[in-house]
Predict the structure of Bifunctional protein FolD.
Amino acid sequence: MTTIIDGKAVAKKVNEATATVVAELKQQGVQPGIAVIIVGEDPASQIYVRNKNRKATKLGLHSVVRQLPATTTQAELLSIIDDYNSDDSIHGILVQSPLPKQINEPLITLAIDPKKDVDGFHPTNVGKLLTNFPGKYPVANTPRGIMTLLAEYGVDPAGKQAVVIGRSTIVGKPMAALLTNANATVTIAHSRTQDLKALARTADILVVATGIAHLITGADIKPGATVIDVGMDRDENGKLVGDVDFDSAQDVAGLITPVPGGVGPMTIATLMQTTVELAKWSDLGE
Ligand SMILES: Nc1nc2c(c(=O)[nH]1)N[C@@H](CN(C=O)c1ccc(C(=O)N[C@@H](CCC(=O)O)C(=O)O)cc1)CN2
Ligand SMILES: [Mg+2]
């Protein structure tokens, strides 16, 4: 029997908890605020940003979307980030990725106040994650959301073999750090990994974040493994599919996330959760 992990249901649960915390914070005179900056007209990014704004407003947050033209310069973007860094009504700042090529993305990440870095991409926060630093700091929302899914479905990473395919700053690297901190034995694989599929078959927990449609099939999965598909790809008919071939994989996996409806919904739910935490930590000094 394979369990299909219901990301929508878990996201709903996370959002309900967030709404409760927002109501408590408002009683104490604090309204958590998020600013999302988007540069250019990438259609997928437009949808994600609209969904973030809708969800934030629905949960009672103060939500600002700053739409900038694709021709925005590095200096202009830095100046806008600076404004939000010193705006007390904003607790979380997010610059939607990808950015146009004239923008130096690492320098943008560095410009965000680490205390308002709701994506958890600032090197200060990445360093804290990597060192399993004590205390409170933001962690990248997609991998954090995946940890929430694992916990909800009773998958304890401790002592397990985990393979993370993909080494991005948004998913692969923070995912590997979170699994390591949870006492899994973690291997990061990527496009230069030799015999990737044999490695995938060693995983008790397999996280796939490559952007290659159907890279992993049932034949590459250890029977009973937990398979987490972060991919959002288009197949030859333009249909949204994952990096895992769900049809063949679901016969082999113990637990598996679908695309859509698995990891995706957790990204925005966890983003809202993180924004509210940042507000709590800064305004209530927690
Ligand atoms: N600054 C950031 N940029 C980007 C991030 C990020 O975390 N921070 N992540 C992605 C895009 N993303 C949010 O920004 C995102 C992607 C997917 C989903 C989602 O809900 N997916 C659904 C399917 C949606 C569809 O039908 O197209 C699902 O998988 O069920 C939410 C947010 C890149 N940029
Ligand atoms: Mg404040």
